[in-house]
Amino acid sequence: MAWALSIALLSPATVLADNAAPAGEDKVALPEVVVKGAAVNEPTTEKSGAYSTRKSASATGLDMSLRETPQSVSVVTRAKMDDFRQLSANDVLANTTGVSVEKVETDRTYYMARGFDIINFQYDGIGLPFTSGLLYGDIDTAIYDRVDIVRGANGLMSSTGNPSATVNFIRKRPVYQFQASSGLTLGSWNTRRLDADVSGALNEAGTVAGRLVVAKQAGDSYLDRYSPGKTVVYGVIEANLGDATLLTVGHSHQKDDVTGGMWGALPLYYTDGSPTNYKTSASTAADWSNAQTRNERSFIELSHQLNEDWQMKSTVSRNRSAWDSKLFYVYGTPDRTTGLGLYSYPSLYNSVNTQTMFDLSASGKFTLAGRKHDLSVGANWSKSNMNDISHYGVGIGTALPDISNWTGNYPEPAFNASIDGSDYEDKRTTIFIASRFNLADEFKLIAGANRTKAETKGNSYGVSSAKNASKTTPYLGLVYDLTPYVSTYASHTEIFNPQSEIDASGKTLDPVKGKGDELGVKAELFERKLNLSAAVFKIRQENAAEQAGYIGAKAYYRGIDATSQGFEFDASGELAKGWNLSAGYTQLSLKGSDDKDVKTYVPRKLFRLSTTYQLPFLPQAKVGGSLNWQSDIFRDEGSGNIIRQGSYAVLNLMARYDVNPKLSIALNLNNVSDQKYLTSLYWSQAYYAAPRNGSVTVNWKY
């Protein structure tokens, strides 16, 4: 489809549609096409240059402004991603209010918000929780218009998960007037990247449009032996089947090729309890370590405008993710004097996860008691199959030299010592309803519910994955307009997540329950170009599985509770002409059922700031910076061994100059002060973040 689209965009019909008629000839006026069906799609942010958006349906499925949404929502626009070269989901989320990115390895990542794991990533509002609770590989941002982050429980749109956040990636869509752009980036450690994006009408009538986005990146890294690369291709076609019906078909492909990636990371303390302090470039990867990740995402959407007030939309999605790797894990605790005490654990790992999803929804307005109200109803069904296998290498437990100056020289073993793996299937069926009642000019009540049945069957590494649960989760919000631009709100949301762990009696634990209560105020200032919000929240997760002991060789679990409460500020948009801002501050406490601190690796305070300014005396130039700060964290390993990471701030700078309306040059400098810090304490191992680095990008657009 990508090849067909690229050819079609260069077809004579497209050229004729965009070129002016030669002198002396009459210009051909194309018929006007009114695309009513597109109204159900999310508003775009590209070309706006804005750091915010007016509306988002990511929290409720209802078409509402951020001020009218009774929940904390942050939006990362195309402009912000471009300004700060946020090329991956990690880059985006590491600069988002209230979110911490836990990079436990080079190619596997956890995400946290309000003290709990984020496991719900969606694409245009549709998705399933992570199969393993974390992300394998990378998500490139080249194909997305914006990213919405809804913090707290999100039972209406996610059905199952944690009361942390839902991340919704909004794809780029075709435009009907021809446009094209490309970019070439050269960066530290021999990093090279090429981007291209072309879109336009595919027929003379202007009723069919297509878009093709490609990106290719390669290079080395600050880490010894680590060289990441990726290829991204996205094609989408949009066809107006009539005045009220819109068909969209799209497919994205991303392949990550990595050599020298780490499985696990560096040991963090010596046998005497003192902390290790390796070089920033230190790696435990063997010189033969490698991994390939492939993600294929296909979707078909059909939207239809029933009348002036009502529209329907159906979506079928098919995702396939595969991971093939040869990995080298290092375990043990080194001696401070000799560096010895570490051992090898090689493995060959393959996995395939396929997901099929179907979603049908209708939204519109109805009249009750003389007032118009909004309603959204829908149903969705999904099935996910996970198959993976581990081939363990010969030589597990071989003693290793001091890794301080290790070159990764370890003979590649035969991977036939033993095998193990998983084979299980998840099914979910959901129906939901949400409505916004206009109780009065100033009062809006948002009420809804989600009924979900979740079932899993199969086994994972010799343990049954079987679980079966059904639950109705409510959503309730109240918004009061103090002025046409300032609102206060209160909301209660819930979510649940089935689990397969068993207790001491052999009974499967009940599902995890998550509840969130939030009270806040939101404002739209400066002609609605700046969105402000402040909120206090209390999140409770009940019955999460925690290992409690063993009966023979079989582990059993107990359900524990945890409560997160705190406050949050968020700002995004335009402060003045040419001055954009995105900022947020989060502070929370996280306690267990015994009122003691839990998850001490989660920072209790986070500050995010990104700002750019177009110079009034040189309007072709834009300068900016971002600052990310987090408070100190620690991890108690027992026996008096406590791992600590002090608070730190990371400063990034950018500058761009428009040579002419079509050509621009951008400079980005990251970690300006060359801070040395650990990427995470989520696990008992970690590695160091990238030191000072930079890039230069040349962009061309038509």
From TrEMBL:
Which PROSITE patterns does this UniProt record tie to the protein? TONB_DEPENDENT_REC_3
Name the UniProt key words of this record, in alphabetical order. Cell outer membrane, Membrane, Receptor, Signal, TonB box, Transmembrane, Transmembrane beta strand, Transport
Instruction: Write out the similarity annotation.
Output: Belongs to the TonB-dependent receptor family.
Origin superkingdom: Bacteria
> How does this protein lie in the membrane?
Multi-pass membrane protein
TonB-dependent receptor plug domain sequence ranges: 66-164
Q: Could you identify this protein by its name?
A: TonB-dependent siderophore receptor
Enumerate the spans annotated as TonB-dependent receptor-like beta-barrel domain: 267-672
- Where would you say this protein principally sits, based on its record? membrane
What is the source species? Undibacterium aquatile
- Which InterPro entries does this one have? Beta-barrel_TonB, Beta-barrel_TonB_sf, Plug_dom, Plug_dom_sf, TonB-dep_rcpt-like, TonB_sidphr_rcpt
Q: Where in the cell is it found?
A: Cell outer membrane
Q: Where is the signal peptide?
A: 1-17
